[in-house]
């Protein structure tokens, strides 16, 4: 039999194990797998890597995620092996999460995911879905479809978490203490900038060059004394800021396109004009206005929500870990080591 096909004893562990029986991960060799009696096996077209009570997980699924991680994190050698084990653990946890959701009749519809995508698009100030995909892939270093599936899992996790974990929200003193500890970090830094955006008509070399040339000409006019704000209102293709002279106000660096954020972060002098640069949206020039630590009164609710989520996640991970310890999980991959 071709070793790329695997025989799986579905009857032994899909829904028939007692939840009271403690069963940690079981590792089976190929010899043990292929010695299963014929009347209790199924031949699959893909090698099964992991089997949990809720579903079988193929080696292809593990390898796809590993390839994404390898490219996005530039991993090799021992680091890649460790990442593989982390991916296996993450997939197992997701399978357990889906099983719990099924037990509690919790469903994340496509509409709910799309609504969340639209909210994130608005925060990223993306003009359309294509631009948003570019932003996500540049910022997260993963394919958009993979990011979207992980978003679905995150939404599912939050719904299950809400019924599985009982916790007390942070007090105002807790929030104040967190703010004092973190207020001088880059994550708490906001910049005040104006910008002019020129979007190429297409991705052709000629249109890219035309957009860059147009913006270089606008920049020369500004450096010669022309009003940045007037030229922004006249030429910028950003509908959210053009009518305000290009101003996007006070924003967190982390909420911006990474190329835009990197350019803004390097600027220090009020009124400074950046060189022409390209982001996921198109070509920009920035007028830097200043930076500050985000005021507590403006972000207190956000900090409270973040602290609540972090606390719930810690408790939820422990809860999932206990569920995993009493689940029937069979891992057919060699050299796997649990990372939890």
Descriptive overview:
The structure is a single chain. The chain is of the alpha+beta class. It has a domain at 187-293: Roll (Chitinase A, domain 3). 51% of the residues lie in helices and 13% in strands. It has twelve helices and ten strands. Strands 2-10-4-5 form a four-stranded mixed β-sheet. It has a four-stranded antiparallel β-sheet with strand order 7-6-9-8. Strands 1-3 form a two-stranded antiparallel ribbon. The longest helix has 30 residues, at 296-325. The two termini are 35 Å apart. 19% of the residues are buried. Residues 1-45 have low confidence and may be disordered.
Keywords:
Chitinase A, domain 3; disordered N terminus; 340 residues; 10 strands; single chain
Count every beta strand, where a strand is a DSSP E run of 2 or more residues.
10
| Class computed from helices, strands and strand pairing | alpha+beta
The residue fraction in helices comes out at 40-55%
Apparent shape: globular
N/C terminus separation:
35 Å
Helices and strands, with pairings:
Elements: E1 7-8, H1 10-13, E2 26-27, H2 30-34, E3 42-43, E4 48-51, E5 56-58, H3 59-73, H4 77-103, H5 110-123, H6 129-140, H7 144-164, H8 172-182, E6 189-198, H9 205-223, H10 228-235, E7 247-252, H11 258-266, E8 277-278, E9 283-293, H12 296-325, E10 330-331
Parallel strand pairs: 2-10
Antiparallel strand pairs: 1-3, 4-5, 4-10, 6-7, 6-9, 8-9
């Amino acid at each position: 039999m071709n070793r790329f096909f695997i025989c799986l004893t579905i009857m032994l562990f899909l829904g028939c194990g007692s939840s009271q029986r403690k069963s940690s991960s079981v590792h089976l060799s190929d010899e043990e797998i292929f010695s299963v009696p014929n009347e209790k096996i199924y031949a699959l077209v893909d090698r099964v890597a992991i089997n949990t009570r809720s579903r079988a997980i193929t080696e292809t699924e593990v390898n796809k995620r590993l390839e994404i991680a390898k490219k996005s994190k530039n991993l090799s050698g021992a680091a890649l092996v460790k990442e593989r084990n982390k991916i296996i653990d993450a997939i197992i946890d997701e399978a357990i999460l889906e099983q719990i959701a099924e037990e509690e009749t919790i469903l994340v519809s496509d509409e709910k995911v799309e609504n969340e995508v639209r909210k994130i698009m608005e925060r990223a100030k993306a003009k359309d879905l294509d631009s948003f995909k570019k932003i996500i892939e540049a910022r997260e270093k993963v394919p958009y479809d993979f990011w979207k599936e992980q978003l679905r899992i995150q939404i599912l996790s939050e719904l299950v978490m809400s019924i599985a974990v009982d916790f007390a929200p942070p007090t105002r003193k807790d929030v104040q203490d967190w703010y004092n500890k973190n207020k001088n970090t880059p994550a708490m830094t906001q910049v005040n900038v104006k910008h002019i955006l020129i979007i190429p008509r297409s991705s052709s070399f000629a249109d890219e060059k035309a957009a860059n040339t147009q913006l270089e000409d606008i920049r020369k006019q500004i450096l010669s004394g022309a009003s940045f704000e007037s030229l922004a209102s006249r030429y910028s293709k950003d509908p959210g800021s053009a009518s305000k002279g290009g101003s996007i106000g006070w924003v967190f660096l982390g909420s911006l396109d990474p190329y835009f954020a990197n350019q803004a972060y390097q600027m220090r002098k009020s009124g400074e004009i950046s060189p022409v640069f390209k982001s996921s949206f198109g070509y920009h020039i920035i007028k830097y206005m200043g930076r500050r630590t985000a005021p507590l009164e403006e972000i207190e609710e956000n900090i409270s929500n973040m602290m609540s989520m972090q606390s719930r996640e810690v408790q939820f991970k422990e809860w999932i870990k206990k569920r995993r310890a009493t689940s029937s999980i069979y891992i057919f991959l060699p050299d796997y080591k649990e990372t939890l």
